[in-house]
């Protein structure tokens, strides 16, 4: 069983129920649309009976102590999820997807930049994602190669500049439409 950080609870955060793309036989949720089972800032109204796909979601903030309280997804505007099998071959296959739900908040948060420098220096595969446009999947970029030099120099301003450029590229990328494998989404 996956170990969570002790005494860390979701509180009033409902970010994963609003920003993830969920496509399972029992539930489909568009990215950026609050799940119909969720009460905003309160949580899941069917928590005890929530689908397996929700039980399986690996929230980085709840899993890793490296993220402190400021990293609660609704506070920092970043939803961290564990992803597998997306990295280039010369990186570990387990990485982190940082979905910037509120880039303007994340970019002002010192812990965000500090984490990037630390993780990139440790060769943790990092992906930056943004919610692109309604009805479309988030766009995503593997950010490590772009940040390695700035991270090696502990250059916070340089790191931020590169992240801003990456976000701008993500906004211009063509996004794929959400096509649910199962029935019509909520
Ligand atoms: S994003 Fe993480 S902290 Fe927020 S509601 Fe989901 S599991 Fe809880
Ligand atoms: S079913 Fe519950 S846990 Fe799953 S996305 Fe909806 S509100 Fe969140």
Describe the structure.
The protein has 186 residues and is an alpha+beta fold. It has 2 domains: 12-57, no CATH class; 58-172, no CATH class. Helix content is 32%, strand content 18%. It is built from 8 helices and 8 strands. The strands form 3 sheets. Strands 5-6-7-8 form a 4-stranded mixed beta sheet. Strands 1-2 form a two-stranded antiparallel ribbon. Strands 3-4 form a two-stranded antiparallel ribbon. α6 (110-121) packs across α7 (144-152) and α7 (144-152) runs antiparallel to α8. The relative contact order is 0.16. Residues 17, 22, 27, 29, 35, 37-38, 44, 46, 50-51, 54 line the site of one iron/sulfur cluster (SF4).
Secondary-structure map with pairings?
Layout: H1 16-19, E1 22-24, E2 27-29, E3 38-39, E4 43-44, H2 52-56, H3 60-63, H4 73-76, E5 78-84, E6 94-100, H5 103-106, H6 110-121, E7 126-130, E8 139-142, H7 144-152, H8 156-172
Helix pairs in contact: 6-7, 7-8
This protein binds iron/sulfur cluster (SF4) (2 copies).
